[in-house]
Amino acid sequence: MREWRVLGLLPARSGSKGIPGKNLRPLLGRPLIAWAATALASAKTPIRCICSTDDQAIADVAIAAGLESPWLRPANLAEDTSLVVDVIGHVLWTLEEEGDAPYTHIALVQATSPAVTPADIDKAVILAIEGKADTVITGFPAGQRHPSTMFSMDPDGSVHWLFDEKQRMSRRQDLQPIFIRTGLVYVIRTELVLKHRSIYGDRILALTVPEDRSLTIDEERDFRLAEYLLRDVNHD
């Protein structure tokens, strides 16, 4: 009998200031949330997969994609200022009250990451288990967007480099590889949420993913980019 139990979780609230109704907006003929929901439902490592939402229409789409949505999230956990760690805590405490056995890890995916795959989720879970990680995140290589090229500016246009001169003058191939975090999937030990109200522990490991699948739908242009990329990317 395995010593770990993974709960798959997809949080999706009804409100969105940037793009109203974002989670239900069609993307290549499917509601946005259906992409991540289908991936989570198809992953092999979670024992149970739940959508936490305050909206019955979102719940219906999630259920059609293969997730459970056994209750609607309280309104105070569906505001602009609501923290995902509190949403996770609500799910865990509710399941405990209903008599479900404790879970050791949460596999968290987001509706705004339509390019996540079942393999991403399973690889992140396995990395967390085998690597004894508190948290697993995903990221992609920064490439030409290396911090050594970045700077801030004063109102008068004066430049302040983020890195020192030695690194700025280095050849690109000599620079330490840098990665950009993406919200494709997180795997979190439940103890962090329940005891420390955090999703980040001391030991954090990263799963690298291709940049063309590191989509996050936050703005109108992100929908257009997603439509372009998801037509060509193998999403099996």
* Overall pLDDT: 89
Gyration radius (Cα, Å) is 19 Å
Oligomer: single chain
- Percent in helix: 25-40%
Cα distance, first to last residue? 30 Å
Number of strands: 10
Broad shape: globular
Stretches where pLDDT falls below 50 for ≥5 residues? none
Structural class: alpha/beta
Beta-strand residue fraction: 15-25%
DSSP helical segment count: 7
Major β-sheet annotation: 6 strands, mixed
Largest beta sheet: strand ordering = 4-1-5-9-6-10
SSE order in H/E notation? Answer: EEEHEHHEHEEEHEHEH
Identify the notable features of this structure and list them briefly:
236 residues; alpha/beta; 6-stranded mixed beta sheet; two-stranded antiparallel ribbon; 10 strands; globular
Write the layout of secondary structure elements.
Layout: E1 6-11, E2 26-27, E3 30-31, H1 32-42, E4 48-52, H2 56-64, H3 84-97, E5 105-108, H4 118-130, E6 135-141, E7 151-153, E8 159-161, H5 165-168, E9 179-189, H6 190-196, E10 204-208, H7 220-232
Parallel strand pairs: 1-4, 1-5, 6-10
Antiparallel strand pairs: 2-3, 5-9, 6-9, 7-8
Structural description of this entry:
The protein is 30% helix and 20% strand. It contains 7 helices and 10 strands. The chain has helices at residues 32-42, 56-64, 84-97, 118-130, 165-168, 190-196, 220-232; strands spanning 6-11, 26-27, 30-31, 48-52, 105-108, 135-141, 151-153, 159-161, 179-189, 204-208.
